[in-house]
Specification:
Blueprint lengths: L6 H4 L8 H39 L1
Length: about 60
């Protein structure tokens, strides 16, 4: 026997219309910001390591 589910049975959201998209955009922006900070920190660390290497090399 097949289970039948109507659209009305699952058409529920705890958020008002459009509110979920604002939450999703905020989440994506936060993720992008976190990744950008990690890349920036890695670049800064690479510059420090390169400067230390160059100082030791001379």
């Amino acid at each position: 026997m097949l289970n039948c589910v109507r659209k009305d049975d699952i058409d529920y959201s705890p958020y008002d219309e459009g509110e979920w998209s604002v939450l999703m955009v905020n989440s994506l922006l936060l993720t992008h910001s976190t990744v950008a900070e990690a890349v920036h920190d890695s670049a800064a660390n690479l510059e420090i390591l390169l400067a230390a290497y160059m100082a030791l090399r001379n």
